[in-house]
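#lab-general

N.A. 3:47 PM
ok so I finally got the sequence cleaned up, no stray characters, all 59 residues accounted for. can someone with queue access submit it? mine expired

B.Y. 3:52 PM
send it over

N.A. 3:53 PM
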Amino acid sequence: LYHQDCLVHFENAFSIKNYMLTDVFKSLNHSVIDLSHYSEELTNVNTREHLNIVKRSLS
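B.Y. 4:20 PM
back already:
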């Protein structure tokens, strides 16, 4: 479950060959959220294809 604003950060990460997860999230506002009720909606974004799927679902 990703907010639309996060997609920009994932796009930037995938445009670079080497990146760390902290590079993606360091500029986002950090907060603790109980995601237990979203367990079936969570999606991993490990590849550009995964990112495209998330983007299509948010469109």
